[in-house]
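quick one
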Amino acid sequence: MQQGKIIKSISGFYEVHTREGITYRCRARGLFRALGQKPLVGDDVEIEITDTVSVPPEGSVMRILPRRNSLVRPNVANVDQAVLLFAITHPVPSYNMLDRFLILMERKELPAVLCFNKTDLARKEEIEALRETYEDCGCRVLFASNYQGEGIEELRKVLEGRTSVITGPSGAGKSTLINTLCPEARMETGELSRKIARGKNTTRHIELLSAGADTYLVDTPGFTSLFLEEMEADQLRYCYPEFGPYEGTCRFGGCVHIHEPSCRVREAVEAGKIHPIRYRNYCELYEELRTRKPVYRK
Ligand SMILES: Nc1nc2c(ncn2[C@@H]2O[C@H](COP(=O)(O)OP(=O)(O)OP(=O)(O)O)[C@@H](O)[C@H]2O)c(=O)[nH]1
Ligand SMILES: [Mg+2]
Ligand SMILES: [Zn+2]
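structure w/ zinc ion:
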């Protein structure tokens, strides 16, 4: 029996990558269906090797080890963190979208690393503006360039020994980054990738790419919009770690830091202790959540 990780699932077969770096083509043992279990990409599994001569070698998935978590989009198990990759420019990041992303990660309790790419195209002031806006956002902030290699070693350390989903808007450089970090990856980049992401990417296979021992990356198609689902407006404030020190100190209990008098959060914004862009996003998203039409489900 060998332990490995499911890195890909294609029409009834699972590709299982072992510690030795060998990928086995496996069938799941018939028992899973009876147990109501379905192996997922990212699952740690035990396999029995059945054929070492064929190319690729073959085996059977015998047991799924306990799952730590699983995401829906992308449908992957045992994800340790998300890397939110945004270009500093080309395309210019939307602050609003960036906050939505951080909020979603916070809600999923998935640790996030914020990485701004394309430092080679950016002016110093653009970099500093982003650094200042996000320095207290609760997650690590890195700057990188796929083209010049800046920040890539730092990123490698952050990714080492973990499974990370690389996410962010189209054109940020996610696939280029994965091609840089994973020797075997051949992700499509540039215009082509964008066309696919818009077209038939629904049939796209999710796969884990190996970036070293116990290190896996998942590429995702870029998104253009992001909705905050299933969230009450008055919960939003807990997704802004900068507000934390002031929470509970405002004049009114349950202060949502919008219009209430003697609000410590608003005072902190005015005193320059909370970044105004973050606060402005908070107000916009709060309004969006507050006025959202209820969703009726059948
Ligand atoms: N100047 C510069 N361009 C980059 C860098 N990284 C990627 N690019 C370019 O940016 C464009 C988009 O890169 P992709 O890797 O395809 O972006 P993506 O995030 O995978 O985009 P989608 O797949 O559409 O979501 C390509 O033309 C890349 O060559 C970088 O560090 N600097
Ligand atoms: Mg891509
Ligand atoms: Zn307040």
